[in-house]
Structures are given as structure tokens and as C-alpha cells.
Amino acid sequence: MSALLAVHQLSVAYGGIQAVRELSLEVKPGEMVCLIGANGAGKTTTLKAISGLLPPHAGSVHFDGHSITRLPAHEIARRGLSLVPEGRGVFPRMSVAENLMMGAYARNDRAAIARDLDEVHALLPRLTERRAQMAGLLSGGEQQMLALGRAMMARPRLLLLDEPSMGLAPLMVQAVFDIIRRIAARGVAVLLIEQNAHLALKTCARGYVLENGVIALSGNAADLAADPAVRQAYLGG
Amino acid sequence: MDIFLQQLINGLVLGSVYALVALGYTMVYGILELINFAHGEITMMGALVALAVIGALALAAPGLPGVLVLGAGLAVAIPVCVALGLVIERVAYRPLRNAPRLAPLITAIGVSIILQNVAMLIWGKQYIPFPAILPEGRHQVLGATVSDIQIAILVLAVLIMLALILVVQKTRLGRAMRATAQSRQVASLMGVDVNRVIAATFAIGSALAAVAGVMVSAYYGLAHYYMGFLLGLKAFSAAVLGGIGNLRGAMLGGLLLGLIESFGAGYIGDLTGGFLGSNYQDVFAFFVLIAVLVFRPSGLLGARLVERA
Ligand SMILES: Nc1ncnc2c1ncn2[C@@H]1O[C@H](COP(=O)(O)OP(=O)(O)OP(=O)(O)O)[C@@H](O)[C@H]1O
Ligand SMILES: [Mg+2]
Questions:
Q1: What is the pTM of this model?
Q2: For ligand 1, atom 30, which residue shows the shortest CA distance?
């Protein structure tokens, strides 16, 4: 099957400093893939470049067979690629309900939007109780759930998740990952970025390991988890 | 009692005009954290363009009803100001969007000087009288006098402000504006074309400024290439007074400033034992502004700094 997302030889620099170098990766339709790496490895930079928030300095990004390499972020989003950014990025001074509506901003199929909203509430009952509350007043875990629900409202074909476990208590991490799995089970492809390599490799089928802006290793999640170098560097021996 | 009521009415009328202009400052600030110092000049342009149309029509077709002539003036002034606002945003501010914050501020001052000079070249330095086309009815209310123009200004301003609140709270564009104000990046991830939303914000602000400019010139019976300076400064102060970035704050700040100014003009003589006359009303307004900001630096309805961070 051809790739839904194909990143080819992508390089991104901040000023003169190269943060990501000649990075290539693929995500197939419906697949769950993770990109793991230490602090500052270039994970966020990679996702920002894919989703149009940062202009790549070289290389290409194709989505569904079409180049999206230098498209503005809003056009990339409209093609069905949703990024849940690092730190969740909910709109703090909007209600939960309005945040969810913002997810469907680019759509105008009202009936389908209403159905999707029901589905999101079924998936995330905690949000239903807090529908009228300002998103800025939610707990970190609830904000992450809201960010996931909001992304679902866009009906994406590919979900890019930047460290959804960050700053969450272990129980909440479990709950959030449970939701991510259920989203993936609906056929949405996921590219997951994590520092928590153990959890990421357990959740995804395939993985890439990023070190200092370069892909150092890639393969089946199970193989990566068994790799001595990965165990040593990311799984605590 | 009648003097009190009179100052109250005058203050509300003046304040509602300040509020319309203040909304333009606050909307742009809310979305870009930019103080669009050229906004006062847009108001001036609105007034002068409308006056040119009104003057020409009053000459060419003296029989036309005044309201129609005024409508024609607005119908030209609004699109001219909207176009002006859009061009300024595109040419002067957008290229500097990621520049240090001082750069667009200086550009804004530059743009406002350019606009003043353009207006001076077109219309000269003299005061341009507002032709006597409007009904001049006056009504006695509990000992105070209210003119038709005052009633029209107040009613129209309130309707416009209600409409604006409705747009911002309930429509797709309004949601996009609020989202963009909270995070441009995240808004773009939702599929919002941030540049278009920013342009729409300038367009709305400029349309309000055009209307306000026509109101001021109709109220005082004249317009002038320099009128945008003080009006803009006061409206900006009103926006700061209410809490810049906050729509209701701009409305409240505008009304308050109008009231302060009007009561200040009415009572400043008594308060200072005749030392300061009513010509000090502007100073008085700014004095109150400073006093408020000392105690509430983020304005009356502004988010406290912690909330903004
Ligand atoms: N805006 C920026 N300007 C300059 N350098 C940056 C900027 N953002 C990130 N960097 C640098 O680029 C490199 C990659 O950063 P990036 O945020 O992509 O890492 P990351 O893998 O997401 O890290 P973390 O796990 O801490 O989120 C780092 O060395 C970082 O210091
Ligand atoms: Mg990161």
C-alpha cells in the first residue's frame, strides 16, 4: 500500500542551526507509527515542518500522493492532517464546546459535524460534563483529551501527536493512550512523538528513533524495543 | 439637576463615538498585540471623504433629503476606509509581523503621519464645515436638551456595538478571530487562514472608524486633516482604560471617557475654584486615565497579567 504521509530528506534549520537533517519517514493509511528521541532531538521540529508551521529548508513532504511541502498550515490542515501540538494548544479563553467547534472550522457538512460531535462526546465523557467550562480551567489531562477531541472534529486521516503524555499522572497517561488507540481503531493513521519510548513502542506498530536531528534507527516496534542500543538509551537498560 | 443630566447626555454621545474608535484599536491589539496608531487617521479620512461626497451632493442636488445625502457619504466613506485599513495592514504591518515589537509601532506612527499629509494635500489645512443637511430638532428632557443628531449617534453606535458583539460571539468569523487572538499557530492548525482573519479585523475596525468619523464631524459640524490625532489618542486611551484587547472594555472605556470629559468640562471650573476652565477638559480626561492605570495597570476589564501569560 502506498504511503499516506511520505517525508523525504527533510531538513529544518533555526537560523543557521540545523535541528533536523535529511529525515525520511513514512506512515501508511491507518498505521500507528512513533518517533522517539531524547530532549532536543528534533521531534517537535519535525512535526512542525510536516504540518506547515515551520518552512523546511530542504526535502519534501507528500500527503496522500500530493506535495504539501510549502503549503501554509491552514491548507495542510484542511487536507486531513491534524496536529495536536506540544502542550496541547487548547484555546484557554474558549469553552470546551467552542474548542470542539474550532476543530470542525474548515468543514461545512453540518449534519456530519453534529454526528461527529456526538461521537467525540461518547469517546470523551469527561468533556461532556465540562462542555460550558473555559478550556483554560481544565486539568492537564482533560486539556489533552479536549485537544484530541478537537482534532477528531476535523475528521483527519492522519493525526500527529506531540508528546500527549507530557506532564500527566500515570493514570491519566493510560486514559489518554487508551483514547488514542480507540481513535486509531477507527482507521485514523497516527504519527506519535514521545519521550516515553516504552509506552510509544508498546502502542505503535512501527517506530523511528531520532538522535540529534537524524534518524538513527527504524523498524518494527517490537524489534526496536528489543534492540540493545534502544534499551540502553531509551528504556532504562 | 438639569446641568447634571445635560452633561450625562453629552458624555454618553461623545463616549459612544470614542467607543466605536476604541473598538478598532482593541480588536487589532487583541489579535496582533499591535497598537495601530494610524487608526485615528482612518477616522479622519472617513470624515473627510464623507464630507466631500456630502458637499458635492448638497451642491448638485439641493433637494435631496439630508438623511439620504448622509447615507451616500457613509456609503463611500466606509469602503474607502476599509480599503485603506486593508492596504495599511498588508503593506505596513504584515511584512513586520515577526519583527521586534518596536518596528511595527514606529511604522504605525509613520503611516499616520503620511495619512495626515495626504489629507492635508487633498483638503488643505482649513476646517471644513459640515453642510446643514441634517434635521436640527431639539427636544427638552427634564430640563436638558437633546438634539436629533445626538439621538441618532447614540442609537446607531449602540446598534453597531451590539452587532459587533453578536458577530464576535456567535459567528464562524468571530470564533476564528478569538481563536487567532489566543494563538495564531493553533488557529492555523484548525484550518483558519490567519491572514484573512487579521485582514477582516482591520476591515471591521476601519468601517467602525469611518462611521465614527462621520459622527464626530456631524456632531461638531466640521472636519479637519488633524482631527484624527486627538480623537485617536482619546479612543486609544479609552481602550486602555477598559483593558486593551477586550471588546467590552473598549465600549466601557469609551463611554467612561466621554462622561469624564463631559463632566470634567462642566465642573472643572467649580472644582478648581475657577483656576482651570472647560478648555482643560482633554487634560482632565487623561489625568483620570493615568489615575486609573496606576491602580489597575491592565485596565478596568483587562485580564490580569497572570491570566494573559
Ligand atoms: N525556535 C527555536 N529557535 C532556535 N532553536 C530551536 C527552536 N526550537 C527548537 N530549537 C532547537 O532545535 C532542536 C530540536 O528541538 P525540538 O523542539 O524539535 O526538540 P524535541 O525533540 O521536540 O525536544 P523535547 O522532547 O524537549 O520536546 C533543539 O536543539 C532546540 O534547542
Ligand atoms: Mg518537543
A1: 0.92
A2: A40
